[in-house]
Amino acid sequence: MSNHSTFNEVKEALFPTLAQYVPIVARVHGKNHPEFHEVHKLVDAIMEKANAAGTERPDLNAEFIQLRAISNDYTVPDDVCESYEAVYNMLAEVDAAYQN
Hints:
With 100 residues, the chain is mostly helical. It has one domain (3-99). Helices cover 74% and strands 0% of the residues. It is built from four helices and no strands. The chain has helices spanning 3-29, 35-53, 61-70, 82-99. α2 packs antiparallel against α3. The longest helix has 27 residues, at 3-29. It is globular and about 35 Å long. The mean pLDDT is 93.
């Protein structure tokens, strides 16, 4: 299996769930964690670029750099729900697959 297909497999597996969870987490936790609104925008941009690229490798380096900075390398805050944690775990997995 090539690294290229690994990102695509992770994308196919996780993007539908991220598309469902991210807006809900933003609505529920956005007041206490305003940085998550930026996470939401970046996730939307990543999904849009990746989906537009099809099976080609999109250029997502800038988005992942920003995402890591905003999320403190996907560190889950203490006062959030399991869905927030799941989003950060999925984003870390997508990021790792993209970097490989």
